[in-house]
Amino acid sequence: MPLNTKHCWNATNIPTVIGESNSFGDWLQLVFSQINLKSIQMSNMVCWMLWKNRNDLVWNLTFLVVSEVLNTTLSVLNQWRFVKDKTFDHTLGLLNLEDGRTKWQAPSMNRVKVNTDAVLFDNPSRYCHAQVVRDHNGKLVEAMSHCYLGSVSPELAEVIGIREALSWVKNASRNDVVVETDCLTLIRWIRSSYITMSYLGRVMEDRRRLLVGLQEQNVMLRFVKRSANSVVHYLARYNFSIADCTWILENAYSEFDYTVCIDSKQ
Question: What CATH architecture applies to the domain 112-264?
Fold first, then answer.
């Protein structure tokens, strides 16, 4: 059922029934005269999302429900505020209490944790991503690195890394898995319902569907700070000249094994 605009405005708690007006512009000015700056920003973003949702319905026969419109509105608004105000807390919006860890933490009993990261290089242009899987004792289960020639955006490189991490979970038929990345933009995009027709947007949507398909395996995606993702960052950077490589505990080279042990004991 297409979105009910009135229900969407009611959910924002912004007063919209104010006096009489002959046009949308007049109505909007009346609303602005009765609310504060943050509510004005929210009103502008809601108008934009409703307009976009209407166009998606007309041209693509797709639409968002009220909760999806509001979640996407808040996410985009938070990102805009962060760009405009460097004192704004960019960890707000679509994040939860489990996000933002500054140190690597072992998963709970019988779970595994997959950390993923990507690194870009110049001369020649190439990008590498890696995944490190550890168990509840912090011991290495498996690690993978992949390196490709070519130039891509940092976001696309991170998305490819997430795909590899989720593919590993699916192919290994693992349950109870935590996947961690230090790419905040990626986390917000996957968790939101925002869809863009760009190439990156289509790739993101594919990853979102893959994650949804793994819900029965209890797979969780989390954001961590770079300091909690240092081992996989090291692996992606160290192996920039290797096309594809996989390690397990028994054949991991000594320097990497030492790095994992130190990080797991912090």
Answer: 2-Layer Sandwich (3.30)
Residue-wise pLDDT tens digits, 150-197: 887 888 888 888 888 888 888 888 889 999 999 887 787 777 655 554
Kind and range of the H or E run holding 43: helix 37-60
Element (H, E) at 144: strand 140-149
The model's pTM is 0.62
Which amino acid would we find at residue 129?
A: H
Percent of the chain's residues with pLDDT above 70: 80
Owner of token pair 């690597």: 104
Residue partners of 52: CB distance under 8 A and separation at least 6: none
What φ, ψ does residue 101 adopt, rounded to 5°? -65, 145
**Domain boundaries for CATH 3.30.420.10 within the chain:** 112-264
Beta bridge partners of 115: 132, 180
